[in-house]
Amino acid sequence: MPELRLNIPSDVISAINDELKIAQKNITGGTGKELSATDIGRDALAVYKWVVDQTAKGKTVVATDSSLDTFVQISTPNLPAPTFLKEKG
Questions:
Q1: 76 within some domain
Q2: How many domains does the chain divide into?
Q3: What is the arithmetic mean of pLDDT over 70-85?
């Protein structure tokens, strides 16, 4: 099994946990626990796998606000956004 080792500054882990606490106030669910670098890495890998899968299916992955008026298309240097969303009208 491949192994991944990263050096992640503790302030990055703390910042992620701080933002997670804010995010969990806006949603139902979540454990409320402080995440370790390993926890964050596992979640990040699961999300990346899902993004790759959705993109391979021809879907556009976005983050949007609750009104659906503002969105950001998700991409990475190795997985550029393949499509552009068109405004309905």
A1: no
A2: 1
A3: 79
